[in-house]
Each structure stands twice: as C-alpha cells, then as structure tokens.
Protein 1
Amino acid sequence: MLNNPYQQSIARSGFGQPENSLLKSFIPLNRLSEDHLNSLLRDTSVEYLCAGQLVVEAGERDNTHVYLLHGELDIIGADGASTRLSAENSDSPFPVAHSQPRLQTVQAASDCCVIRFDSDRLDGIVAWEQIVSYILLDISSRRELDSDAEWMATLLRSNLFYKVPPINITQILHRFEEIPVKAGDVILRQNEIGDCCYVIKQGEVDVYRAPDHRSAQEMVARLTEGQCFGEDALINNALRNATIKMNTDGSLMRLGKQDFYLLLKEPEVMNMNLPAALKAVDDGAEWIDVRSEEEYEIGHCNKALHLPLEILQLKTRMLNSDKRYVTYCNSGRRSQAAAYFLQSLGYSVSALSGGFRRYSNTEQEQHVQLCF
C-alpha cells in the first residue's frame, strides 16, 4: 500500500516499476541480459521519497547502488557544498554518490523516486555476464563445438547456474551427458524424486501437470532447444512438479545432482592482499584492470593494463609470458576469474583478494594512487 501522498500521485501518474530500457541506460546495468536484469528486479522495488528525506548519509556503509529515476536530489559534500542532480536533465549513467563508506550525503530536493540494488548481488551478476561472454567467445572459436554452440549459449544466459561460482562455468559444459530420445519418451514424472536436470539440445518437449493426485494431467507448456527442465531437483531438493514427455525425436543433455554439487566448490586461485600486491608491482609486476570500459574510465590504477574480462582472450597478445601480473576489479569476482583463465594459459598471475572495495578509502590513499 502506498503510504504517502507523493507515492499515491506517482502511482496515479503511471510511474511504477521502471522500464528495462531506462535501467539499461545505467552502468553497470547496461551489461546485463534481460533474464538477469529481471531476476535482479524481483528482489528490489522503487523507493518513493518526499522532499527533504535522506537517501544516503556520509559515513555509512549501505553496500547498495542507488539510481535516480524521477525528480531531483541534492548531493552534499563534507564542506557543505551542494550539487543538484535532476533525473530529467542529467545524462549521468552512474550510481548516485557511489563510494563505500559514503563520502557525501544525498537527500531528496523534490518529491522523487530512486531504485536501490544490493551491490554484492549486482556485482555477482555482472561477473557472471562477463565470464559467460568470455566463454562464448572461446566456444565460437572452436570448430569442434559448432554443433553445441546454440544450446550452450542459451544455457549460459539462463539463471539456472547463477549459484555456481563464476570460475566454474567452464566445467559446467563438460559435465553434461548427451542422451538420444524419441517422440513419446517420458523423461520425468510428476512427484518422482529428482536426481538430475536436462537441457534440450535438439527437439521439443511437452510439460504436463496435475493440480493434485486425483486430477488428470494437462499440458501446460512446450519447451524448445536450449531450454532447461528438472532444475528444481538440483536447487531445492524437491519432488518433480511436472511430467515431461518428448514431442519429437531429439537429443537431451543430462546433468546429475552430484556433478552439480561439485560445481558449487570454489576452485583455488592465487590471491594477494593489497600490501602484497603493491609490493609485487614495486618489484616489477603489472596491474591488469578487468572491468568494463565505463568502469575503467571512472578511475583505475596507475599504468594498469585494461583487459576487460569478456574479451580477455583476444587481449592476451598484450601480455608477456616472462612477466608477473596482478588482476583487480571492484569485488574480486572478475579478477579471480581472469587470474584463473590466464593461469590456465601459462601466465604468472595473482588476483587482488576481495577487490578494491574491500579496502577503505583511507587505506587506498595511503598505499596507491587511485582515481576511484
């Protein structure tokens, strides 16, 4: 229920959940697929504020990305100077006063609305997206995977394996087993205990469901190539909620529950804390910034190579096999993945543990000149 007059007036004016096209104008939301953006939106909502209400306060660590959707905000610095941000006139794609801890206080200058995302969840999804892009680039360059490229791409763009550590994505594809099937084959039965999931490589399946054990099953959906089914058995340890029958001849890719559980374990990657990384750089190692171009332009380490994770494989020609490197990003997720991939190619690479967000602004200023 809307509990203040402004919320009610906004609702009457038709401003509710923002369109994805608006959200895609913000960084790093512009890097997300529709599926992942919609998944993120399910866990958040628009906040409606009256003039004078605080959005964030200097000194707090709220671990969120805040974006202005409608109205105006005042951004107030430590010296009391204020800058006004207007949703209607601003072309800034970045989150509002984004630093942890907050360096500025932000309050509503007019009745307005903002949307606030959990930074860890957002960063995890961005890392997943960029790692997937890296893997799809690798798949497209390998002739032996031509027949698998389509279902692999659809699978990797889905939310099924979001709980899997991003570094393990490369292992997912190797753990599927191909099974030939015929039209009419029953693959799963409602209320059975589940021990695997499937991806449709070729063909179509029909989904049947009965509301209770006394009712007849009715067809409720038809799934096609690249779509998954049976994943609840992996994620929720639940009974099958539907019967799945092949509508055509085809081929399914099967993943067992135990294989899925193995994929949940984080692989070992060489990490360094900030002081150790800075010493390594002093001794001749080089920084590698694996974030997006937009993030890099906001600020980066002095003399850092820019090798965005999603095109890392294309940029390795810039590296020297005799040199040491330290990868970094905001949280450590993307830099760990980059270090893992580069190590597999024979390079001497460590990742900055936890990313720069792990260290306070004071520590950063003491140890390294950054432009963040």
Protein 2
Amino acid sequence: MKLHHVAIQVADLERARAFYAHVLGLVEIKRQAHSIWFDVDGAILMLETGPRAERDGLHVIAFTIASDAREE
C-alpha cells in the first residue's frame, strides 16, 4: 500500500503555504481557488480552506490500493 494524499484543512491558506514551502521546503505542484498541493516524495499534501475549514486540522488520508485488493 502506498500513501496517495493527505488533506489538511487550514483557516489561512497563504500562511500555511508559507510554512510548508519556506520552512519545510516542499514544492508546490498545483494551486486552486481553495487549495494548494505539494509534492511529498511522490505523495500529495493538500492544504484546503473553504466552508468546511472552520478549524485547522487533518481532513483526509488516502492510500493507493491495488484494484484487486479493494474488497478486502
């Protein structure tokens, strides 16, 4: 199993982007109106804001699972 992406809700998208880009050195790979995506060694870190981002915190962790193993 491989980690595909992690989504974190943030109240201040630009402040969070500055931390992940400048402090941790992650490379921004995609930007949308309410999200910024970073590459983390082949996995994706998504910072998201919007109506559901009432407070900061982990929102989603998604794994890549082979199609023949999904029923398990």
Protein 3
Amino acid sequence: KEIEMGIPNETGRLDILGIHTKNMKLAKDVNLTDIAQETHGFVGADLAELCNSAAMLCIREKIDVIDLEGETVDAAVLESMAITQSHFK
C-alpha cells in the first residue's frame, strides 16, 4: 500500500518552519512568513534541512570565538548568537 503525502501549501510550510525553529534563537529580522512564501515545493524534510543549515551558518560565523577544546561554550558567546534572515537566504 502507498500513502501519498502532498507538498504542503504556504500555511503548512509556515507551521513546519515554526516547529523546526521553536528551540532556535532567531534574530528579530527573521520572518518565517516570507520564508514560507519563498519555499514553494519544499516538503518537511527540505524545511528541516533549511533550518539546520541556517543554524550551522550561524555557528560557523562564531567558530573562531568558540573554545573547541572546552566542554562548554561561554555564555557570552551563546548570547551573541542568533540566526538571522540572511542565514536562511
């Protein structure tokens, strides 16, 4: 048996983006509605990867100030990190 799951519409994509970003620190310029509008044809897995990629870009920008040998990341570094709209772009 097969179950066909269609591609989500804009509202569905917005809901999926909300789920995948709920535990992420987003900058004030992030507009999930715009991202949902611009991701026509994306399915849940595509949107999950988009969110993960945006987070990784944010981390890569701060990699020079993160102590990779330490067991924890300095709180000031964590506080300065926020995923922006440009990370999603």
Protein 4
Amino acid sequence: SALVTIETFESLSLTLGVGGLMLYMVFIMYKLAKESGAGRYGTAMIFISLGLGLVGFAAKSVIQLVIQV
C-alpha cells in the first residue's frame, strides 16, 4: 500500500504548480510596475488589469467546487 495515491499526488502537484505560477505572475506584475516607473495609479492599473485574469481563474475553480461539476 502506497502512502500517497497517484490521484492525490496529481491533485496536490497541480494545486501547488498553478499556485506557484500565480505567485510568479504577481511578482512579474510588481517588477513591471517598478521598472516602468508607473507610479501609484499606474501600478494599481497594472495589478487590476492583469490581476483580473488571476482572479477569474481562481473563481472558476471555486465555482466548480460549489456546483460540483
């Protein structure tokens, strides 16, 4: 008997991998705002516009859990 099943490992790996990529994207947005000298308003626009994609992706997962698709 294995300690961790393949399904559990795949689910955990996917969650950690996608989460890591999302954190990396936030770092990229921060770096973009800093290097471009965007200022306070420009930085907010970068995080709002590019961050909406991350929020949408996360919301999709939550909605799937709620309606149990």
